[in-house]
Write a structure and sequence with these properties.
This protein is mostly helical. It has one domain. It is built from eight helices and no strands. Helix 3 packs parallel to helix 8. The protein starts with a helix and ends with a helix.
């Protein structure tokens, strides 16, 4: 009886295509990021004085470009492992180590601006920058969590954190094109805070939505 049931349940099974999980996450990222680009343009173009903020300072523009993208790619590297039931528990340590390295790098950039006044820290948009980064990353976060719903992560919280880290990084990347702030200290503090806020939101939502 048991063998017959197993045979019937497995009769229509087809092999899962290679890299199906990675392709699902990439598709979700592309959909969410397209929505982020459109939403950022529609919202921030009306709020900010100019697009391509800081583009007149080439070093700062490319620093923001690389810094934010590094967070997104870090989350993208961790996500395919963390959404699996057998996801390796060493990944949180790797992610934490890389985040510390990024934080140390941003800290060294902060001190490049010697004798900085408070205005360098606060700029003109410190109170809205982290929130706008989180807002910009929301479409990516929603798309990734929707894609992860059909998976079985070993830790829903960590899987959600990875999704939030991707969303925060790519959301901050999109936001940087409209941010007129050109101080490294500002980027190190407020961009990082926006990315961390998005990652934390992903962890909370992942704990709720990705349970199985």
């Amino acid at each position: 009886m048991t063998d017959d049931l197993i045979n019937r349940l497995s009769a229509d099974l087809a092999p899962v295509p290679k890299r199906a999980l990675e392709r699902r996450l990439m598709l979700a990222l592309l959909i969410g990021f397209a929505a982020t680009i459109v939403g950022t343009f529609l919202i921030l173009d009306l709020m900010m004085d100019r697009p391509f903020g800081g583009a007149d300072t080439a070093l700062m523009f490319w620093t923001k470009f690389g810094y934010t993208l590094a967070f997104g790619l870090l989350g993208l590297a961790a996500a395919p492992v963390l959404v699996r039931p057998e996801g390796r528990s060493t990944w949180p340590l790797v992610v934490a180590s890389l985040l510390v390295l990024l934080a140390l790098g941003s800290g060294s950039m902060m001190w490049m601006e010697a004798d900085w006044p408070v205005s360098m820290l606060m700029g003109q948009t410190a109170m809205v920058c982290p929130w706008l980064i989180t807002l910009a990353g929301l479409p990516v976060l929603i798309a990734l969590l929707a894609a992860m719903r059909s998976l079985a992560p070993r830790s829903p919280t960590l899987a959600g954190f990875a999704a939030g880290l991707i969303a925060g990084g790519f959301g901050a990347w999109a936001y940087s094109f409209y941010c007129g702030e050109t101080g490294m200290l500002f980027m190190a503090v407020w961009y990082s805070l926006g990315i961390v806020m998005t990652a934390a939101l992903g962890a909370v939502l992942g704990r709720i939505l990705l349970r199985w």
